[in-house]
Design a protein that fits this description.
The structure holds two protein chains of two kinds. By secondary structure, chain A is an alpha+beta fold. Chain A has two helices and four strands; from the N terminus they run βαββαβ. Chain A has a two-stranded antiparallel ribbon. Chain A has a two-stranded antiparallel sheet with strand order 2-3. In chain A, a hairpin with a 4-residue loop joins β2 and β3. Classes of the chains: A alpha+beta, B alpha/beta. The complex binds flavin-adenine dinucleotide and iron/sulfur cluster (2 copies). One iron/sulfur cluster binds next to α1 of chain A.
């Protein structure tokens, strides 16, 4: 059940502080050790809680939700 | 004999806490303050992972000197419907206010008056109050824990517990980034993994590894049949605090008023069953009329930009900033919820059924569990499928139970030696940890989640149950069990983590449904079409599950109601 369209990280602005990586509860964001930048490695697991954005000091990370967010359908 | 060091990275501590969230961190600090060496291991990052940094509203609190008799009576007779462990409930209630003082001391921000005294909000129903709490409350406590000398091991997913002579002596897992195998030796282990959310509702991400780690180590689970469902906005998949009382059908009838016939304080089984009926009988889609939120609810959940009714959020810049960001994104992407968003059910989960006593000891020596992992299993709130049966309850339950469990585990660890598990056992568990990496690629974890959900999560298995439909879902899950063992495939360590989550979700779901099949009456969120009445004569019983060979053994146990102060007329 994918809940986001995409995760955009502006590599120009990213200072590689890893705060976003540390604030993600579900291991969506990883750190590229060669480029020293954050990457949206596993967007399939993203819940668009936006806590990573809240932690980014450069405001260079954006999560684009999929709307309507898939809700597990209980009524048959 | 092989040394453990040859098998993986070894770390040793007195008390090992698995899960650094709203329960695990207080457990760790309490154990540390009692003199133990403490290590927290989390598969993400302690403090910012788990549910608490997404917790929207408030914390249900008891004031100093609150009438605990009244509280325990309401919780036993109304909320828990007599399936409470009433002694554990009393012990819990006595620990609530001291925990609020501890949270304050440990750096959590709570609503306060100008003179520094705690600020409480009145609630329309129930002998309790609400307090506001800051968004990064767990991370504030993480800092305190580190200052006090608690060690942290982040991004390690625990996959099994170690046992020796019937006692838990540690745990094993793998680093989700490097893939390294990690072995933890400990005198006592506390599970605080935040229960199972079936991956159904947005932001409720926990998959229930506290349940499965305990179960696989031979611990009993209890009250698993009760699972919480919620009212959610269809567009965002997010639950809306207070909205349950303003859900309307297409004839303009208020669904809460139509079906909820007792002094309920939050979404209850009658409301969800009522909503289901409205949809079945063609009066949907249901909608929430946000303009009707009562004055009382405005105080609690009100507009954060209004200084008078800013309610539970108004004192916390972290929460205001986050909520504003969410609202702006909603507006940008789809124009916001509007005044009348469509209402659906959401399976909220928070199913944590590890059986613990009032000191949060499981039935296996050396193993403790706290927080949501024990929300059902402690039986403190009886049949209520989430602590206190209302939002705000979990936030109070987690640190309070964490503190009690942390102190007990530290006490037990005193004067003990660390015992090594055998290398053979560690090797076998290492194989289990990496098994999905070696499979042939037939099915990935995301597909597995979808299949578990499709087979076992529709409404009829979770709230409109019958022997017939439960057997069907159980059959499907039993068939999946072998597939998970032989075909579930991970492409990398991230997916390996997902594979363990899928295995856990399948096990937890099977336990829930088997407990539900055994429980032949209706009570609270456990509703059986074939046994629609609550039966206090035959069913003051707990359904207990335990590992039996390769499967799940189920039994029932009488609630010792004769020893308790609150009893139904029939008992
Ligand atoms: C959107 C939202 C809103 C909420 N609003 C409220 C509210 O207003 N009031 C209220 O009372 N409650 C609320 N809650 C619930 C509350 O946040 C939780 O009850 C509480 O945080 C649970 O604490 P916990 O420690 O049991 O679990 P968590 O805080 O979830 O912590 C569990 C930790 O265990 C780790 N973990 C899990 N499995 C493993 C493993 N195998 N190995 C290593 N680590 C592992 C996880 O990474 C996580 O960090 C809300 C929850 C959400 C998601
Ligand atoms: S929005 Fe939440 S889940 Fe998604 S990447 Fe950011 S922190 Fe992770
Ligand atoms: S928080 Fe922002 S600046 Fe820091 S690593 Fe992440 S994207 Fe880059």
């Amino acid at each position: 059940m994918e809940r986001v369209e995409r995760i955009i990280i502006d590599e120009e602005k990213c200072i590689g502080c890893r705060l976003c990586v540390k604030s993600c509860p579900v291991d969506v964001l990883r750190f590229d050790e060669t480029k020293k930048k954050a990457v949206g490695a596993y967007p399939q697991e993203c819940e668009w809680c936006l806590i990573c954005e809240e932690h980014c000091p450069k405001d260079c990370l954006r999560v684009q939700p999929k709307i309507p967010t898939p809700v597990f359908e209980f009524i048959r | 004999m092989k040394s453990l060091e040859a098998l993986g990275n070894v770390l040793t501590t007195d008390v090992l806490v698995v899960g650094g969230g709203m329960a695990g961190i207080p457990a760790a600090i309490a154990a540390r303050e009692s003199g133990a060496e403490v290590l927290i291991v989390d598969k993400a990052y302690t403090g910012l992972a788990g549910q608490s940094p997404r917790g929207g509203n408030g914390i249900v609190a008891l004031k100093k000197g609150a009438d605990l008799d009244k509280y325990c009576e309401y919780i036993s007779t109304q909320v828990g419907r007599y399936l409470n462990d009433q002694k554990a409930l009393r012990n819990y209630a006595e620990h609530v206010y001291p925990t609020i003082e501890k949270l304050d001391e440990w750096g959590v921000e709570l609503t306060k008056h100008e003179d520094g005294s705690f600020g409480y909000f009145d609630l329309p129903v129930g002998p309790w109050w609400m307090m506001g709490i800051n968004l990064y409350c767990a991370d504030n406590m993480r800092k305190t824990a580190e200052k006090k000398g608690v060690r942290l091991q982040n991004h390690v997913n625990i996959t099994d517990l170690l046992k020796e002579n019937g006692r838990v002596v540690g745990a094993v897992g793998f680093d989700i980034i490097s893939g390294d195998f990690c072995i933890f030796r400990a005198k006592t282990v506390i599970l605080a993994c935040g229960a199972n959310n079936f991956r159904a509702t947005r932001m409720f991400t926990n998959s229930g590894e506290g349940n499965s780690l305990a179960f696989n180590a031979g611990a009993q689970v209890r009250n698993a049949e009760f699972v919480f469902l919620e009212v959610a906005a269809a567009k965002t998949g997010e639950t809306l605090h207070g909205a349950q009382m303003f859900v309307f059908n297409q004839d303009g009838e208020n669904v809460w008023d139509k079906y909820v016939d007792w002094p309920a304080q939050d979404v209850c089984a009658e409301m969800i069953l009522g909503m289901a009926r409205e949809y079945r009988e063609g009066r949907g889609p249901l909608y929430i009329d946000l303009s009707k939120l009562s004055e009382a609810m405005k105080v609690v959940a009100g507009d954060i930009h209004n200084p008078i009714v800013g309610g539970l959020r108004r004192q916390f810049p972290d929460k205001i900033s986050w909520v504003t960001r969410l609202e702006e994104r909603e507006k940008e992407v789809f124009g916001g919820l509007g005044d009348k968003p469509e209402a659906k059910f959401a399976l909220h989960g928070n199913a944590g059924f590890v059986r613990v006593d009032q000191n949060f000891r499981t039935t296996v020596p050396g193993l403790y569990s706290v927080g949501l992992d024990t929300g059902n299993g402690s039986a403190i709130f009886g049949s209520a499928p989430q602590p206190a049966g209302r939002r705000g309850g979990p936030f109070m339950y987690c640190p309070t139970t964490g503190r009690i469990g942390g102190m007990s585990a530290a006490e037990e660890s005193k004067g003990m030696d660390v015992v090594d598990a055998t290398a053979d056992q560690v090797e076998a568990l290492r194989e289990h940890a990496y098994a999905s990496l070696g499979h042939s690629g037939k099915i990935g974890p995301r597909e597995m989640f979808d299949r578990i959900q499709a087979a076992a999560l529709p409404l009829e298995f979770f709230i409109i149950r019958s022997g017939k439909n439960l057997n069907k879902a159980i059959g499907a899950l039993e068939d999946m069990r072998q597939e998970i063992r032989s075909d579930l495939t991970a492409k990398d360590y991230h997916e390996l983590k997902l594979c363990h989550e899928a295995e856990t979700m399948a096990l937890c779901t099977e336990i829930v449904l088997k407990a539900a099949l055994t429980h032949t009456e209706s009570r609270d969120f456990h509703y059986r079409e074939d046994y629609p009445k609550q039966d206090n004569k035959s069913w003051l019983k707990w359904v207990i599950a335990e590992k039996s060979g390769d499967g799940i053994g189920i039994a029932t146990e009488d609630v010792p109601i004769g020893e308790y102060p609150y009893r139904p007329a029939e008992a």
